[in-house]
Amino acid sequence: MTVAARVLRQLTERGETLAVAESLTGGLVAAEITAVPGASRSFRGSVTAYATPLKHELLGVDPTLLAERGAVDAEVARGMAAGVRRALGADWGIATTGVAGPEPQDGQPVGTVFAAVAGPLGVGKVAALRLNGERADIRRESVLAVLELLSGELAENARAQDTEQNGGN
Question: Which residues have CB under 8 Å from 2's CB, separation 6+?
Fold first, then answer.
């Protein structure tokens, strides 16, 4: 089972939905998700905010943050995940931003990627990645990384809910 199929199964079992915000991956996360039959049960949609101003205009990322740190930043990824969740009315939002190359961007070297998850309880984890390889390799690994991050958050969130429902036992 692919990680996308596992994530969709987790979401479907919970009756929850997902929205995706992408920058360096340019729609590859959404493509990976929609390649799974039945994805429409949980997948709301995606925003490819490739241009930096769109991260603010469409996803609500703080423009001062973008001006001071640039688009390749952990807090920008966090804002993108929360913003797409809100904009598309989903239970979960995930986001990717980074540098696939061939040139550095915003003072960050090629292979610098941030992936983020925002869930019903707010923003979960942000992963800072340092990936190697060609542009296509970096983009492909970014897709897998953000989906694995979400899968882990879904599993952790399910364990927390189970503990709460069973009185901490």
Answer: 32, 36
Per CATH, the homologous superfamily of domain 3-160 is CinA-like (3.90.950.20)
Q: Where are the alpha helices (DSSP H) in 3-134?
A: 3-14, 28-34, 52-57, 63-69, 74-88
Is the CB of residue 82 less than 8 Å from the CB of residue 118?
yes
Paired residues of 123 in beta bridges: 118
Query: Which residues, in sequence order, are CB contacts of 132 under 8 Å at separation 6+?
Result: 111, 138
Q: In what order do the strands lie in the sheet with 43-48?
A: 43-48, 18-22, 92-98, 112-119, 122-130
pTM above 0.85, yes or no: yes
Q: What DSSP state is assigned to residue 108?
A: B
The angle, 0 to 180 degrees and rounded to 10, between the axes of the packed helices 135-165 and 3-14 is 30
pLDDT per residue of the chain (169 residues) written in tens, 0 to 9:
999 999 999 999 999 999 999 999 999 999 999 999 999 999 999 999 999 999 999 999 999 999 999 999 999 999 999 999 999 999 999 999 999 999 999 999 999 999 999 999 877 799 999 999 999 999 999 999 999 999 999 998 777 665 555 555 5
